[in-house]
UniProtKB/TrEMBL annotation:
Domain Fatty acid hydroxylase: from-to ranges: 96-231
Localization terms from the record: Membrane
Organism expressing this protein natively: Siccirubricoccus soli
UniProt-recorded name of the protein: Sterol desaturase family protein
Record key words, sorted: Membrane, Transmembrane, Transmembrane helix
Transmembrane segments: 12-29, 50-76, 88-107, 148-172
Any Pfam family hit: FA_hydroxylase
Chief location bin: membrane
Region of interest: Disordered: 264-285
InterPro entries, per the entry: Fatty_acid_hydroxylase, Sterol_Desaturase_Related
Residues in coiled coil: none
Amino acid sequence: MAEATSPFVHEPVVRLGAFVGVFVLMALWETLAPRRPQAVDRRWRWPNNLGVVVVDTLAVRVLFPAGAVGMAMLAQAKGWGVLNVLQAPGWVAVPVSVLLLDLAIYAQHVAFHHVPVLWRLHRMHHADLEFDVTTGVRFHPVEITLSMLIKAAVVVALGAPPLAVLVFEVLLNATSMFNHGNVRLPVWMDRILRWLVVTPEMHRVHHSILRRETDSNFGFNLPWWARLFDTYRTQPEVGHLGMTIGIDRFRDPRELRLDRMLMQPLRGDGPDPRSAAAKGNRTHV
């Protein structure tokens, strides 16, 4: 008898297909209806930002060949985790797992802002001088590795079903590209959508050079945690066209090179790049 094939054997194809589809859609949307003018050419930024994606993907595949879905399959087979112990039905386990995994990523994001050693990793994401779809995939490989460890631990402790983990990972990747998009949304549509998902108008505030704005709107996918934990900010103080994207520490466009981005965690801190010293907003770089 032929050996049964796991329904998740095509997980990499599903994730790659979703990534490419959403990326192309957002890139076209940004071209047709940009929200902000960009001073730094995409022909300079995009190859470097996408180069980070390649490095991240290789690092995760080498260090975690089974991925988070593989950990969920192992936990399911061994009966590990709260939901497996409780034998929760799929219609309960899947949505609960997606919800709690999103909460875990929110908490992780807050920690990466407030723990200095973690901020040195995460600041590469914030050091982009523009805000568009490629910013949503620009994360240091060490941060991605730590994030995968945290995610795997949560998956096992929770006993999240493999389907829930796959749905969550596809959603997280897609919404990260969506809410980093340099796209124009009608005001009425944004007002409705930000109750259901983190929108570009909501998340762009998080990339402000002002610390009080950077330390807000931490969600990537679901918007409810910001309101629940009092980190929600509706708009940037000087508006979306007047705000400055990035951090003080890395303003030179040469810092957008792939090699310099990867070395940023080893660079000296200097003044706190998100400090209140950055009181007056800068002109758009």
